[in-house]
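Sanity check

After download, print the first record. It should look like this:
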Amino acid sequence: MTVEHSVEELDRELATAVGLYALTDAGLNEAAATTDVTMLELEMAMERAGLDDIFDLSADGDVSEAIDDLLEEH
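Expected structure tokens:
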């Protein structure tokens, strides 16, 4: 697999959020909020990069599951 994107195309906020999630104890929500991206944007970026299996994003809960849980509470 080759990466054909230039550095200019890199979204700095998403890259920072991925780094926070990967290198600290921050969850998806905290990493996203800290960098001003949505949790959905972060999760989708990690999936596109093939990181969802590496970091087992399903264990942290996906966005649709979180929404369903919130709706069930109300």
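If your output differs, re-run the checksum step. Summary of this record's structure: The mean pLDDT is 79.
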